[in-house]
Fold each of these.
Amino acid sequence: MLNFSFHNPTKIHFGENQIQLIAGEIPTHAKVLVIYGGGSIKQNGVYDQVVNALAEHTWFEFSGIEPNPKYATLMKAQAIIQQEGIDYLLAVGGGSVVDGAKFIAAAALYEGEDPWDILAKQHPVKQALPIGVVLTLPATGSESNIGSVVTRDGHKLPFQSPFVRPQFAVLDPKVTLSLSERQISNGVVDAFVHTLEQYLTYSVNGKVQDRFAEGLLQTLIEEGPKALQPATKEDLDIRANIMWSATMALNGLIGSGVPQDWSTHMIGHELTGRFGIDHARTLSIILPAVMKVKREQKREKLVQFAERVWHLSEGSDELKIDKAIELTEAFFQRMGVPTRLSEVDVTQEDIDGLIEKLEQHGMTQLGEHGDITLDVSRTIYEKAL
Amino acid sequence: MLNFSFHNPTKIHFGENQIQLIAGEIPTHAKVLVIYGGGSIKQNGVYDQVVNALAEHTWFEFSGIEPNPKYATLMKAQAIIQQEGIDYLLAVGGGSVVDGAKFIAAAALYEGEDPWDILAKQHPVKQALPIGVVLTLPATGSESNIGSVVTRDGHKLPFQSPFVRPQFAVLDPKVTLSLSERQISNGVVDAFVHTLEQYLTYSVNGKVQDRFAEGLLQTLIEEGPKALQPATKEDLDIRANIMWSATMALNGLIGSGVPQDWSTHMIGHELTGRFGIDHARTLSIILPAVMKVKREQKREKLVQFAERVWHLSEGSDELKIDKAIELTEAFFQRMGVPTRLSEVDVTQEDIDGLIEKLEQHGMTQLGEHGDITLDVSRTIYEKAL
């Protein structure tokens, strides 16, 4: 096991009708900015629950955060923050809203000249407004971690800071019942790939981390498809298991003390940036190709993944790996997401442009060994065609 | 899954040579009281590492915390706290030292008349001195949870408060190499039973919690005996896996959203109180008896335990349960701890006295259904003879 530090102070309130608890989590005298997306929370009752919970608070609202939140949109929140003296942000939505709130929180107290530098130059965040979250879409884990991704002119740029980690997050699985099939699929696939990116590297004999990751993968494989099937799609236990898996998949725990490989995310980001493909669908396309291209370096963990997650006990290691990759692709297909670039109309001719973007973004040494060069990324894109 | 709130803000520094990090975690101007046990930390180098790390701090020391820390001992620390204006406690040791520090921290700022009321009358703790931990014995999970058990006149009394949760804990598996076999055994068994007490109840379809618990159980079963064997007892990876398992077993995570059954602990406490038997050894004696006596109510989870933890796939459910209990007892025996009262010279004649104590301590409705009455506890003691 590698040395690590782990610290996740986000308080989680999980379960039905927990949204009311936000009243006790946000200081009474705070001036709250409620941040949300396109208004779906007004259809599904979440907005009303938040409004009721904030009856004793002074609050304002800022809506219109889009999927892959845009820098320009987020900067628009600064005016109301200054004008009203906002000192607490409540993000109500999925990962994009939470990521957006994190950037808004950091930009509001940024002391440099241009908050864009937080993303473009990775200037350190030294303070941020406190954030609370009401999560409506289980997927990114952003509700209890320190990361955020913001998009500007087709560039997806991440930043991280402990100052933007939410102080609390309410996870009510019931609110996920109103999600579209596409949102559920994307969320399950995102959480699944997050887990694999902290698992499918090389062994450092971190038995707890491995087994926790395997537990999350198995849970998502079992519960994900059920959340799409007519007979079980209203089952709250299934939604609860998916929601808790997604949070645990990227709250820092399973990645503590083990190597990580975020190449699937980075190579996938360029597909979203260039073609606007849903984030999770870039992952379901790129991950199988990464498994195939990095098969040798990931051999030991691929076999473990085959045996423990897919229960493949027969045949040679080679066969187990083949089968595990096949089953992973079949799982993605069952979740209704693509596994090949051809399914989203990306062709060989597009690859040069994607590689250029990877280079431009400094993504020239990806993977747990830093050996996924631009040439290897090209091979991965080609394998995914 | 049941509704839950989860909050664990303890910062963990895990790995070799991490003790030096305490310097950055304790405020520079704090007046620190270093609290430890019988002096083993002076033999194994931990004391020196702590002294080096605190070179720039003002600190004092208080030693002599015994296993099952005694109220009278802990109260002796109050004099030095008042006299020197101590405002930070650093517990260096195992669960008893950490539990002791928690009570010292709460008693120091207790505003009632007699700190004993925190234990005897469960008076709420409203403030406490901040605590940091350098853990030397993986077992109780006390380094990142809110619980503490203090002993007075043969009574083991627990209290809980978020105010006594350690702010940070350093877990260096290397320092566990100097532990005795008995300490290692006790620690592994304690963590194993903690995990089972949050797992072996009835199913609420909490798949993540179940799989995390199963992962910890499997890890302890695999790694525990290796930490005792000459060929592998110096292996730091094994020690690391045990150490991280023990913390995760009782940091609140696996017990969130699922029923719990702490009857083994409560029934076992009376054996420590009356006969001074090591805490973990009371658990290894009582747990198998609880499994046998509560077999019907725990049937579904016992079968799952058999299949997933012990990989028993053949035969009827009855056979699987029989075999799982046998294998659990065999695991305890492999760890060198007793599984019967006769091994520790407790007989039928002692049971009346134990039941009296349970009654006196209000332990009349134990278990996940509250149906372990004094009569059932009697049956459990008898089954354990």
Amino acid sequence: MKKFQSLENFSNKSSLSLIKKPSVEIKERVRYSETDRMGLAHNKNYLEWFEIGRTEFCRHQNIPYSEIEARGYYLVVVEAYCKYRKPLGYDDEFNIKVILDQLTPKKAVFKYELLKDSKIIASGYTVHIVTNSKTEVCSLPADIIEKIKAIKP
Amino acid sequence: MKKFQSLENFSNKSSLSLIKKPSVEIKERVRYSETDRMGLAHNKNYLEWFEIGRTEFCRHQNIPYSEIEARGYYLVVVEAYCKYRKPLGYDDEFNIKVILDQLTPKKAVFKYELLKDSKIIASGYTVHIVTNSKTEVCSLPADIIEKIKAIKP
Amino acid sequence: MKKFQSLENFSNKSSLSLIKKPSVEIKERVRYSETDRMGLAHNKNYLEWFEIGRTEFCRHQNIPYSEIEARGYYLVVVEAYCKYRKPLGYDDEFNIKVILDQLTPKKAVFKYELLKDSKIIASGYTVHIVTNSKTEVCSLPADIIEKIKAIKP
Amino acid sequence: MKKFQSLENFSNKSSLSLIKKPSVEIKERVRYSETDRMGLAHNKNYLEWFEIGRTEFCRHQNIPYSEIEARGYYLVVVEAYCKYRKPLGYDDEFNIKVILDQLTPKKAVFKYELLKDSKIIASGYTVHIVTNSKTEVCSLPADIIEKIKAIKP
């Protein structure tokens, strides 16, 4: 799984990633309702946390996702993957790190890491296609691409 | 709370409810993801179960809720109440009973009971106003009201 | 406290609440996954927001809810009510205000307001009984009650 | 992506799967609360549907998952993948097909397909490790393995 290997690389910060990618890191907490009877955060919430990360990523890039949709473009999820490494419990505070891995006018790939006390709790990726409001495939305009791709301090 | 008292009445089946109201009863099961770390179904799911009940109620009345929305009418929830009487656990099978308590062109009140082994697990109600797709208040047309109000065998 | 008074009023409480009650106010945002096909936040999320509010209320009172549970006490929801006054959409930022309305060793009542741009979006309450981990009714010890009831600046 | 390729094989039914694997297929409907403001089922629900599928798979194998947990064994999700092929909307009826792809005392792999009108809506897999109630790795006993692996008519 090549994609996931490259995620590994960035995760371990070991690496030769010469090209810096746009990213953001935000804090979240596990809600009581997000736990299940094992006492831990349920697996489906991770996809929701990835999405919160994307929302904050877009805001950080000065192009709120609501604005992208208002202009008629939707980044529809066509693939999602998560590797659950360590458990999270109620009220645990953790970080969501989002990296834009690829972006073309028709496709985006985001990678994610959840971190707690600097340890990787989970990692994953989502693949998106660009559609209009009728879920017909289309292309992101250049100005939106430029904003999403900008490297921020 | 007058409303809840009248709910109590119907709950205890004691009563003199001379006027039969349209109702439906369906089966559901508690999903793993619906439990929390107490080991029981989380309180927010009950509102989702009430909603599943409304969906099946409308279908039973030969006017699927998706059809009501397709015609431009929305039954927006403006109040929701639930009394949690007994806990539900993972994989528990229970019944959702939905009763149309009131219906005018501008407002609907549904009452609910969740039952397990003929015992009342929870009861509640929701109040709805009728809006168009822009959430402007409007009135349900006569043919929809007639269908929703019809007493079915 | 005008807003809170209006909550009191709608709740059927009499009025001039001379006694200040412990409270907390936090910020939240509507997640994409919390919207439904009407384009607005789904009604069940409000109960989850009330719960996030309780978590932050307990932390603010220096007795994190996880600590209360670690000591063997559970504040089980037995009633929940919400009045939905104005809609919330994706990415809307709003405040959750939580007020401890009543607390005895065996019972707690919390009241809530959701506010956006100083306007009340929703209001509601939850009633809780105190149980042990086997959901048997029990009493909160004095030191926990004292902490929960303390008026904080 | 070896795993996904093998998933592809089973998805396309092209293949020479000489070894029949235990499986089950159940019906579900998209709940209103499972849609988002795009008007379609939100991506996180698919993991919940996979889980409902596992619950019904275990029941079908005469070893309800609640019984597995009651005996002290947990099938903890360590990886989840979903490919979203076609959208699902409110009230859409679809089938969840679950196949036990691998089972050893310490690990299980399930594959899934969501089908609507015989068309594949989504496919995916989950990888599980076996733990005790303290999330320590352990091994499933032989009798449980035998039941889970049994080919049913």
